[in-house]
Amino acid sequence: MLQLKNIYKSYITGGSRQIALDGINLKFRESEFVTILGASGSGKTTFLNIIGGLERCDKGDLIINGKSTKEFSDSNWDSYRNTTVGFIFKNYNLIPHLSILENVKLAVSLNCLSKQEKQDKAIEALNKVGIKDYMRKTSEYLSKDEMQRVAIARALVNNPKIILADEPTGNLDSKSSIEIMDLMKEVFKDKLVIMVTQNPIIAKKYATRIITFRDGEVIEDTNPLKEELSQKEICLNKTKMKVSMSMKLAMRDISNKKLRTFFYILISSIGIMGIALIISVIQGFGEKISNYENDTLANYPIVINKVYNNFIYNTKSSNKNAQTEDELDLNKDEDAIYPYDSNENNTEYKNKITQEYIQYIKNMDNDLFSAISYESQVNMNILKKDEDGKISVLDTSSVNLSSYPEDYGDGKYLEKNYDLLYGYYPTDKNDIVLVVDEYNRLDRNILNALGINYKGNEKIEFDKLVGKEYKVILNNQFYEKQGNYFYINSSEENLNKLYNSKEAITISITGILRSKKSNNLSDLPQGISYSNELCNYYIEDCQKSEIVKYQQNSDYNVITGQTFKSKKDKEGIIDEISGVNILSSINQSVTKNQMLSSLGASFLPSCITIYPKDFESKNDIIEYLDKYNKNKAEDEKVLYKDTSTTINKLSTSIMKGITIVLIVFASITFLISLITIFILTYASILERKREVCILRVLGSKKRDIVRLFNTENIIIGFLSGVLGVFMAYLFMVPMNFMLEKITDLADIAVLKIEYALVLIIISILITLIGGFIPAKIASRKDPVKFLKNEN
Ligand SMILES: Nc1ncnc2c1ncn2[C@@H]1O[C@H](COP(=O)(O)OP(=O)(O)OP(=O)(O)O)[C@@H](O)[C@H]1O
């Protein structure tokens, strides 16, 4: 049956080699009761463990049924332990939280028998050892003698060929010892029983053969086997713990340690609750924002401005004198303006707002918008006085004239969108403001046209500009008629007279403004901006002026005498009504419309503001505006600004910020959960060392052990997830109450049911991940070390 050929086994402890077995050669019959005697440390247990496949020898071979085990894999050894060997230990090694029946069934649980067969076999074994009546009890209610009977039943249940018993009566009184020995003799009568004992009387009474060990060697064998062993097939059925078994073991462990498991679940669920609350806030805020977009932002207008300023500055300049970005930042704190060449590093785009475009806007479906407003701008006749007192006509095309709206949505436009750097916001229709760029800079052309004296790149103090006056001259004074033509009398004497006349309107720079940093709705180009009121007053007067009336009735330019260009001739002159002033009308070919607008007869829309009815109409309007630009050359496109998108971008970036912070929190929570689960699973493993080792002795594979812990972790993960989600729903009530107090938004935190389900799955995954390494550690626990320490 069994043969040991020259078996050597040694251990290295503290640097020295300890020989446990020193060349053991023994043969065993298929059926005999062998007792192993020997002093402590003589190698008896090591010998038993090698036969039982719990330890491997260093040298030699264990032959089973004539077959060498040298090539056995771990899996072969597991099957061998489960099907061929039954173990009985001095301290019984029962699993305390399982019933007697379940303890016995554990050994058959790894076989491929049906549930009923396993049950029947276990009951039959318990019946044989006379303990069937207690099978529903756990081991804690049994006497030592009864516990050993259970252990015998467990060793018997698989009907193994070999029974290995390590001092089975070591913990029993003499009466119980005799009972147990009688029982063993009876139930194992046709098997090979190898029993280690310290008791020579028992050995003599029950054994058919006594082998005595000393210092790892056999010194006596009362009934050695001489003949050769016949070769037989060893049946090594594959062992595998069924899912139902690992589920049962896990459930038993959980229900047995209710309080511990409850705290375990509670701690893990706090992490899940944290993540659930974070998700609910992110999701809730996201929804609130999109509702806000639909409800509120829909009312934000689409703005088509003469100057499309998207605030992109290329600060890398080829000009050596140009300021670096850091220097530019310093400008902001100064009470001064910095002259610069805008062409070099500015990407302002000038929209060509033509009659055709205005008509296109007018043709838009009226149902899409609630209102369209046109901010007017007009070419004014303005005189300036240089520092040396010389009067001249101001080139309005160079100063970027624009008009600012009085009211804009829910407040004063300038106050809302511009910082006052110096002076005061306009209070009168004749007050004008100077708009600088975000670095306090102003284009040289504007400064030159305004008649400001400065040297090179030297800064200009604000007080030099604020208070500066200009004179607006109405058409009837500005143009003199001669026959069928009009001309500007630009003699020094006449300009002086006009400048000082009482009809001249004095306009003065009252303040210097800069776009608010966070506000992208500020659309005024840098330069001079005047009130809409002044603009309307001027247009009204111009329309009544003689030159305009004359021009309206003439087919030629009343100043130059030239014929007009057609609306769009071969040279591609566009009938653009903005951006043409009287000086350019004189110097180049213009259309009649352009001439009239340069005379101030028609207003030039410097800004068209469209207020969409709702969010969907806004998209339709945008589509309509985009359609105009389709197939147009780059410089002919009219660019618009969707202010709601600007605000939306702002809220999206705020949301992004909040999300990142919350995700960091969620990650920390996740990590803490993971570490907690790791620690708790590890603690559970330490606690369940006995169970793990017994399962291994009974033939469970390492994989089965991992699966056992994984099953338990899945159950805990699931319960933690459910509890975490439930607590999150509970916490959401006070949290929403608090958030409503702070933000005025009701029911911010919402957790959709599908997210809750995903969180439960995440919880299972967390516990699986957190418990994976401890489960692996558990599966690698050496049952031999445990048994040696326990016995
Ligand atoms: N895991 C181990 N590591 C180191 N040394 C070991 C280990 N297992 C056994 N030994 C040593 O090997 C020798 C044989 O030990 P073994 O337990 O087999 O003896 P034993 O006869 O069963 O003793 P006892 O009756 O006290 O259980 C002893 O000297 C022991 O210290």
Throw out a few tags for this protein:
binds adenosine-5'-triphosphate, 27 helices, 45% helix, Rossmann fold, 20% strand, 6-stranded mixed sheet, alpha+beta, 791 residues, 31 strands
How is this structure best described in words?
This protein is α+β, with helices and mostly antiparallel strands and 791 residues long. The protein folds into three domains: 2-239, 3-Layer(aba) Sandwich (Rossmann fold); 256-294 and 650-790, no CATH class; 379-544, no CATH class. The protein has 27 helices and 31 strands. Strands 16, 17, 18, 21, 22, 25, 28 and 29 form an eight-stranded mixed sheet that branches. It has a six-stranded mixed sheet with strand order 6-7-8-3-9-10, sandwiched between helices. It has a four-stranded antiparallel sheet with strand order 2-1-4-5, with helices on one face. Helix 4 (115-128) crosses helix 5, helix 9 packs across helix 25 and helix 25 (702-743) runs antiparallel to helix 26. The longest helix is centred in the C-terminal third of the chain and has 45 residues, at 643-687. Adenosine-5'-triphosphate binds at residues 11, 13, 18, 20, 38, 40-46, 785, 788. It holds the Pfam family FtsX. Its main location: membrane.
